Amino acid sequence: MNAAVYQTKLDRLNIIKQGKVRDIYDLGDCLLMVATDRLSAFDVVMPDPIPDKGKILTQLSIFWFNLVSEIVPNHLIESDVAAFPSECQRYQNILADRSMIVKKVEPLPIECVVRGYISGSGWKSYQKDRTICGISLPEGLKESEKLPEPLFTPSTKEEIGLHDININFEEATNRVGREVAEKVRELSLTIYTKGVEIAAEKGIIIADTKFEFGLLDDEIVLIDEVLTPDSSRFWPNAIYSPGGTQPSFDKQFVRDYLTSIQFNKQPPGPPLPREVIQKTREKYVEALKLLTGSTHGL
Ligand SMILES: Nc1ncnc2c1ncn2[C@@H]1O[C@H](COP(=O)(O)OP(=O)(O)OP(=O)(O)O)[C@@H](O)[C@H]1O
Ligand SMILES: [Mg+2]
């Protein structure tokens, strides 16, 4: 196991954004995106890192960017730290395997969520009025059941500390324009479907996921991270059983722990027990191994 990276302070580079997980530096004509080992649960960033998590998310995203590059262009320019611009070289130890040089794009102000199974906020909404994001669904679906077909269920993109809000397709068109909304809906469903097929061969159900797109000139580009345990619900197929919540691959131990101590879902998060950190790390490693067959960088 490598030393954890909770946050980066690359003093000679210009940090422009700290997300829940990623630190972003402006390199002039491109960005340096560093995935740290921070973990957020219930939208609150925990005070303890999960060692190697940022490396795992980065390696998984690279794996998927390559696999879906025929469907849509993505923001990845370089992931080999030795080939990063010279001003990054003094930080090689921190950056290796957890960072990417990416194209600078204007992120769309929506999150492109695709659901193949009914869970989380989708299940809550269905129980209320049998719809998700304005899409009517058949009666009698069970929690975690496979949907008749994958749904595009966009949400707003809120600042840190606020929960994203589900919106219907019309609202998405108001935010990004009809042409772009239709295009990202189609792209999201196509990428999700390809991801589902590949993950199924490795025993993983991708119940739902979130994509982010940006505009570069007039081109739509896939950005951020793709089909990782942070952006998706991964369920082990072997024990899938609709009719309740499913054990998920990643944050289950953290969520269970937070529930057990009746965490009020407001920052700051509580310290995490060593065992919770350890077990969570093992789950991320397992997802990486199962999907890519490699543990590069760990
Ligand atoms: N190529 C890019 N150009 C510009 N901004 C980008 C690019 N790729 C990612 N981003 C932005 O960088 C940030 C990455 O930070 P991080 O992944 O920690 O996300 P977040 O917004 O805090 O939370 P979450 O992804 O969980 O919603 C996001 O705001 C994302 O929109
Ligand atoms: Mg993100």
Give your account of this protein's structure:
The chain has 298 residues and is α+β, with helices and mostly antiparallel strands. The protein contains seven helices and 16 strands. It has helices at residues 53-67, 92-95, 120-129, 169-176, 178-201, 252-260, 274-292; strands at 14-18, 22-26, 30-35, 40-41, 44-45, 76-78, 99-103, 106-107, 110-117, 131-132, 135-136, 146-152, 155-156, 204-216, 219-223, 232-236. The strands form four sheets. Strands 8, 9, 12, 13, 14, 15 and 16 form a seven-stranded antiparallel sheet that branches. Strands 1-2-3-7-6 form a five-stranded antiparallel sheet. Strands 4-5 form a two-stranded antiparallel ribbon. A hairpin with a 3-residue loop joins strand 2 (22-26) and strand 3 (30-35). Helix 1 (53-67) runs parallel beside helix 7 (274-292). The termini are close together. The mean pLDDT is 96. The structure holds adenosine-5'-triphosphate (ATP) and magnesium ion (MG). Adenosine-5'-triphosphate binds at residues 17, 19-22, 24, 31, 33, 75, 102-105, 107, 160, 212, 214, 223-224.
